[in-house]
Design a protein that fits this description.
295 residues; mainly alpha; Four Helix Bundle (Hemerythrin (Met), subunit A); two-stranded antiparallel ribbon; 10 helices; 2 strands; 61% helix; 2% strand
């Protein structure tokens, strides 16, 4: 009698088959997975940033010089609301440890609308239109420098050493927009108080040029991303914070413009500020390292 020899399937075939005999789907690595992880709350705030920028543009379009500054004031409030959303989304993502490539790219797209297009068009509508040739050029240069600023940030933030950055290299575009709109709002407040601006209203044009240069410069600004509110502070620091809070309530337009202009100037004088004062101002950020990040 012949012996019947049963041939078993090769071991590798056993691994490639399910119990039902169907082949398993190949497992995708994180790099090859086409699905994009979107963390809900941080990106919802980024979406709010983008929406505020778009709504601001619609109000700027409604502005007519003969009818007053009300549409411009609404647009300014929307740009400041976009700034608040931008301030919170990154901090919320870091707090929850939910930072992602998608969030960074989405944030940059929102920023170019809310802090690039909207402020440039706003200043053009209220001041720069009076300069027949150079007006649109100044607004366009601001927008282009803001775009370069964001592109540079995205490239350099991919570097492994940039994730704990304590400094911005170049003036951040959200802060540039905040300087522009807060100064514009202060000027409108002055007009409402009965003051005649005269040639000083053209200061916004010079400010746009200065901000364009600073955004693509190598001037370093503290990020204030890792402020720890728990350590004990000096009585002077606490008193200063309390005074600023009261001034924001009582003289909002003046105080807000002063705060953002002070941040702008601080980066310029920072190299000559003593380490002791830096620690007071920057909440001990400078003690943690010298890493930098562009943003």
């Amino acid at each position: 009698m012949r012996k019947v020899v049963r041939r078993s399937l090769p071991e590798e075939n056993d691994k490639s088959l399910r119990p039902e005999g169907r082949p398993e789907k190949p497992k995708l690595s994180p790099e090859s997975d086409e699905r994009v992880q979107i963390y809900f709350l941080p990106n919802l705030l980024t979406a709010g940033n983008l929406a505020c920028g778009f709504f601001a543009l619609t109000w700027i379009f409604k502005y007519e010089r003969a009818l007053g500054f009300e549409p411009i004031l609404i647009a300014i409030r929307l740009i400041l609301a976009a700034f608040a959303c931008d301030f919170l989304d990154g901090r919320l993502a870091r707090l929850a440890k939910k930072e992602s490539h998608f969030g960074r790219e989405f944030d940059s797209l929102a920023d170019i609308v809310s802090f690039g297009v909207a402020p440039a068009f706003l200043v053009y509508r209220i001041v720069l239109y009076q300069f027949e040739r150079s007006g649109w050029l100044i607004a366009a240069i601001y927008l282009v420098c803001g775009g370069i600023r964001l592109a540079r940030f995205n490239v350099l933030s991919m570097r492994p050493e940039s994730h704990k950055g304590l400094e911005f290299v170049g003036f951040p575009i959200p802060s540039a927009a905040a300087v522009v709109v807060s100064v514009a709002m202060f000027m409108m407040w002055m007009v409402g108080q009965g003051h005649e601006l005269g040639p000083s209203r053209y200061a916004l044009a010079g400010l746009m040029v200065l901000l364009s240069i600073l955004m693509v410069s190598n001037v370093r600004y503290p990020t204030f991303k890792y402020i720890d509110w728990t350590p004990a502070r000096s009585v002077a620091a606490f008193a200063g914070a309390a005074v600023v809070g009261l001034l924001l309530v009582s003289e909002f337009e003046v105080t807000l413009a002063a705060l953002f202009v002070a941040y702008l100037l601080y980066g310029l004088v920072r190299p000559w500020v003593s380490k002791r004062w830096r620690r007071e101002i920057e909440s001990d950020e400078s003690d943690e390292g010298d890493d930098t990040v562009e943003g």
